[in-house]
Design a protein that fits this description.
Length: 378
């Protein structure tokens, strides 16, 4: 979290027991469309980094995105959503100005009626290419690094000189470094990112099959396998594995959309393993490691019952969320109290902020208003 000088700014979380996470990478405006009915599109903050930080804020963390959300319509929509979920915006509006990434997220059905999703980077109105990710500058990274004060975790999903600089600065302050690449990018920067990271997580589907992840320095490597679950290997002192360990996916009765499942899994793992930074993470036992990964899998399964990467957050209460997760973790034989074994978590939030729930009819009205406000192209 940032260094506190004098009085805190209004709205900045200063709860001493809340763990903190700094993150940089893909933070985008997600335009979620069911079928081809563009009139009912829903627009939420998204992107891997954006989702992970919002979910952790939802779970009680102090989350700080480092980004360039500075002015145009899409950035204002993203900032409103971040603010709604109490994400800290101290480092979210860095210069120089760029257009915020926009991702079209279409929810469709395959030939057998199963839900599938497709992403597009072209405007559905005019066919123009939509803005894509632009990293923070080295100058901005240096400025932010000078203001940090012992964050528990640093998360990044894109490599750039700026993200490497932030990772190095956070590591020097005892933070756990979590890297979730979606592609190789610059090989030199990618290699630097691997050498700095303590946890590396990636999707086998998204990483090029020819790309070899050499995560020799990582304490934990996780490879997600879609419907087949995931596998992991660990060099943690008390949780060493002999090669890959496989965990089956958590089952849900209905799948509406699998987008964002990996982000929820990442957030759940961070939540359970990293709330006290690197030093405590190194003490993780084998059982703690497996239970934490399974907790992440339960969160990933939960979000698949809703449309959009974080659609469930807008549709159900926190009490319902907690109950659902307890039911899902029971598939693994976990104790009911496992969810509340950590100081900051969903159990401590249960019953609060019931207004987070939005009725289906209200969502439709909101979407209709949103569409009329944007005559074309966001």
């Amino acid at each position: 979290m940032p260094k506190q000088r004098g009085k805190a700014k209004p709205g900045v979380k200063t709860t001493p027991e809340a763990p903190s996470i700094i993150g940089t990478g893909l933070i985008a405006l997600d335009v979620v469309i069911h079928g081809n009915d563009y009139r009912l599109s829903q627009r939420w903050a998204g992107g891997t980094c954006g989702n992970v930080l919002i979910i952790l804020s939802y779970l009680g963390w102090s989350a700080y995105p480092v980004s360039r959300l500075n002015g145009e319509t899409a950035s204002r929509r993203v900032l409103r959503d971040l603010k709604r979920w109490k994400v800290n915006l101290d480092f979210a509006k860095l210069a120089p100005r760029v257009n915020t990434p926009i991702i079209i997220h279409k929810i469709l059905a395959d030939g057998s009626g199963e839900a599938i999703h497709r992403f597009s980077l072209k405007c559905l109105n005019c066919g123009a290419w939509l803005p894509t990710y632009r990293p923070i500058t080295s100058a901005s990274a240096q400025s932010v690094s000078a203001k940090l004060c012992k964050p528990n975790v640093f998360f990044f999903d894109r490599v750039s000189r700026g993200s490497i600089m932030l990772a190095e600065a956070c590591a020097k302050q005892g933070a756990l470094i979590v890297f979730e690449p979606s592609s190789l990018g610059d090989p030199k920067l990618f290699s630097e990112a691997l050498s700095l990271s303590h946890i590396i997580k990636y999707s086998k589907e998204r990483m090029d099959s020819s790309t070899e992840i050499r995560a020799n320095d990582a304490l934990l490597e996780i490879q997600t396998l879609g419907t087949r679950g995931l596998r992991y290997r660990s060099s943690l002192p008390s949780a060493k594995t002999r090669g890959w360990q496989h965990l089956n996916a958590c089952k849900v009765s209905e799948v509406k959309d699998t987008a964002g499942a990996g982000d929820w899994c990442t957030a759940g793992i961070i939540h359970r393993l990293a709330s006290q930074g690197l030093s405590e993470f190194k003490k993780t036992s084998g059982n703690e490691l497996q239970n934490s990964i399974r907790f992440g899998q339960a969160l990933a399964a939960w979000t698949c019952s809703f449309e959009g990467a974080r659609g469930g957050m807008y549709e159900v209460s926190r009490t319902r969320f907690q109950s659902d997760i307890e039911g899902l973790t029971a598939q693994f034989g976990s104790r009911k109290s496992d969810i509340s074994d950590v100081p900051i978590g969903i159990a401590s939030l249960a019953g609060s902020h019931e207004s987070d729930k939005i009725s289906r009819s209200k969502l439709i009205r909101m979407r209709a208003v949103s569409q009329t406000q944007d005559a074309c192209c966001f």
